[in-house]
Structures are given as structure tokens and as C-alpha cells.
Amino acid sequence: MSISTAQGATLPLTGERTVPGIAHENYWFRRHEIAYLHARRWLRGADVLEAGAGEGYGAAVLSQAARRVFALDYDQAAIGHASRKYPAVPAMRGNLAALPVRSAAVDAVVSLQTIEHLWNQPEFVAECARVLRPAGILLMSTPNRLTFSPGLDTPLNPFHTRELSAAELAELLEPHFRVSRMFGVHHGRRLRRADRHFGGFVTAQLSGPPATWHPELRRAVTAVRANDFVVTEADIDASLDLFAVAVKT
Predict the structure, then answer these.
(1) Buried b (16+ CB within 10 A) or exposed e, 195-232
(2) Strand pairing of 47-51 and 68-73?
(3) What single DSSP character describes residue 11?
(4) DSSP per residue, 83-128
(5) Closest to 62 (Cα-Cα) out of 44, 82, 79, 76
(6) Pick from 9, 16, 57, 233: CA 20 to 30 A from residue 2's CA?
(7) For residue 39, how many other CB atoms are within 10 A of its CB?
């Protein structure tokens, strides 16, 4: 399967680099969006770095709560797009293994659905700690390995280098952070009904190109909203995605 990107390229449908306004990507977009909406509660009045900002819509959401948000991504095309579409949010290109930010510069680092792509995850975590002020917070989300690639050591998604369980994510963060909260993203009631109806809502979307989808599936995907997902501290190992709140130590 393929998706269109902001630059018109074609990529496999994996939920990577999803952007607003593409009907057949709507499930993945909303699944990303709920994490940004959840993150805002910790960012009131904060100076925030989003590491791995992609298209930039998430940084714009975070800016609704934060004092300032700086969007960082390694992909030059994504940064160019973000600068044009969200001019109120400063965007810059940079390597996540060596953040182009001075030490103790921000109150919070937000990195959603990014850590699973990195070859040297501990290096990135150390960089996040370096740029944070004392007692600064790191908000990080990532697919839950236990449900995203169940029973496998190698991720199913070819764009992922290493996926994590909740325990593995906490262990990765602990040299520099204290994990104060761990949440999981789950399907809410309407998406659970879709799971039952389609024999797995995600599976149905991945079963063939969007052009071949049954009109009923197309309508269901288009209708998904962020509040169709639930973010909770209950049943984390069964969650779709993990969301950690960690305090710099």
C-alpha cells in the first residue's frame, strides 16, 4: 500500500510522516494527534523543543499551550514545509543525535513517534537531558512493541530500528530521567466497534491499497477523530502506543 506525502512522493502505508487532510491516512493522523493533545497539559507557559517534528502540525498544536515551541527535524523538505505552513513556529534542521540547541535551553522536550526510528536511542535520550533545564520534562511516545510487532525481535515496520515495551522504554530513559507517568493509547468505544465489525480495523486498512477499500471501510476511516482514542494508565501492555512523562534527574 502507499500514501501520498506533503511533497507528493509515494510511500508504504505505515503511518509514517502522515499529514492532515488525506482521507485514507486519517486513522493514523488521528492516532498521532491524540498524543499531541495529551501532551499540552504539561506545557503551559513552557519553552518547548519538539525533536522529530515532521510536517509541523504537532508543533502547532503544542504552541496552543506552550510559551514557545521550536520544531526540529532532520529532513530538509519537512522543515521547509513546516516553515511555510506554520510560520508562527520556528523550524530548524538538525540531527537528533547532536541537537543544535545549547545546554539547559528549554523546559520541555517533546518527541512523539520518533525514538523507534533511531539507531542510537541512548544517545538521543542523553541529548534530550542535556538541552533541558533542571527538572525539565521529556514527553515521549512510541509504538508499543508488544502489540505493534507481537512476538518479534525485529520490527514489522521497515522504518523502525528498535521498538519498545513500557518496561524497556522506562529502562531506556532512567539513566537521565525519572519516569513519573506511563500512559497507553487505546481504541475507544467507537474504534472497538470498528475492530469487531471489520475483523480488526488496522488489519482491514492494511489488507489492500486504499483504492480497493470497500466504501464502508473508507467512510469509517474518514470518520475517525482524535477523541476516538483513549489515553490511560490502565492496561498499558495492551496499548497501541506508549506515552511517557519523564523528569530530568
Answers:
(1) eeebeebbebbeeeebeebeeebbebbeebebebbbbe
(2) parallel
(3) E
(4) HHH-TTS-EEE--TTS-SS-TT-EEEEEEES-GGG-S-HHHHHHHH
(5) 44
(6) 57
(7) 26
Element (H, E) at 187: strand 177-187
Count of Cβ atoms closer than 10 Å to residue 190 Cβ: 15
Task: Give the side-chain half-sphere CA count within 13 A for 195.
Answer: 9
| Domains of the chain listed by start with CATH number | 31-198+234-248 (3.40.50.150)
Question: What is the number of other CB atoms lying within 10 angstroms of the CB of residue 43?
Answer: 21
- Would you say 3 and 18 are in contact if contact means Cβ atoms under 8 Å apart? yes
Closest CA to 118 of 92, 138, 99: 99
Residues 6 or more apart from 211 whose CB is under 8 A from it? none
* Angle made by CA atoms 163, 147, 155, in degrees to the nearest 5: 35
Burial class (CB in 10 A: 0-12, 13-18, 19+), 21: exposed
Residue 114 to residue 140: CA distance in whole angstroms: 8
Per this entry, what is the length of the chain?
A: 249
